[in-house]
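Q: Sequence in, structure out?
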Amino acid sequence: MVVMDIWYAPATAKQWFRRLVSLRLILALIIGIVCVCVEFRLNWIEKTVGGYLVQSNSGRPESGAIWDQGRQTHLAQQTLKSYITQRRTSQREARQASSLGQLVLSIDHKDGAMVSAEHFVDLYQKLPPILSNEMISPFTLLTLLSGGHWRRTFFELQDQILMIYLLDNNNQVLHRLSVGKSLLAHIKRGEVAIDSSLDQLADFGRNIYSSEKFFKTLNSFPESVRKGIIAHPEDLLRISGKIIRVGISSSGPANMVDLGFEVETVEGPKVILVQGRQADVDRLLRSMQGASFFDWMNSPGDRP
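A: Exactly. Output:
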């Protein structure tokens, strides 16, 4: 009678030893070690599993936390890309603006716009003197420039008010300006309205003419000259009231001349200021000053 060892519960140390050095166990260990070494060298298990997942990927439903996270990440990347593109476009338009009105129209309502201190001063000088002085005194700008700390200017739209911050190199606010709704509307159109008559504005002096003579003389010039004098005549058509007189200032910033159109309204006289190129305005002025004495006597608005 053969007595067989109980395989699951060896009773003696000899049985334990025989069990440990058995051929089957040694072969299993060798095969396991070989598989582990090959895996470390070739990563065949990961490649096999990865290949299977790639082949079966199209058939799996796009659901679960991983897919949701992937969609959210993609959406966030697209939104961020669009935001960066819009901001770059807005900043580029602001830096390239040749007037304060153009800069205001380019301002992004969420992010505002930033320009250098020198660019702001250049835009400030192109404004009609009455408008620029109402925004900020030139003496204040001179003080800030001479201090050497003003580096950049930030523009921000809050409702219908334009906030302007003059900043130093660390973005600390040196001075803050606030441009109201009415003034902002004139800046966007490139003109400003003043509750006054031309006679009360010293800038125009003796160069005040009837609207009839002004526009009749203006119409005798080529289109290019007329555009140089009044770049946007359609803005004058929108004025509620009748233009009765036109004044021409003696000089202006950056080879520009202020033109004042006196409008008769129910509230009283109002002067609309626009800017024209000095060379073209001088041609118009010489033509009007060359009118006959009879025409001058019959145009009360032309007399000082």
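The first strand starts at residue 113 and ends at 116.
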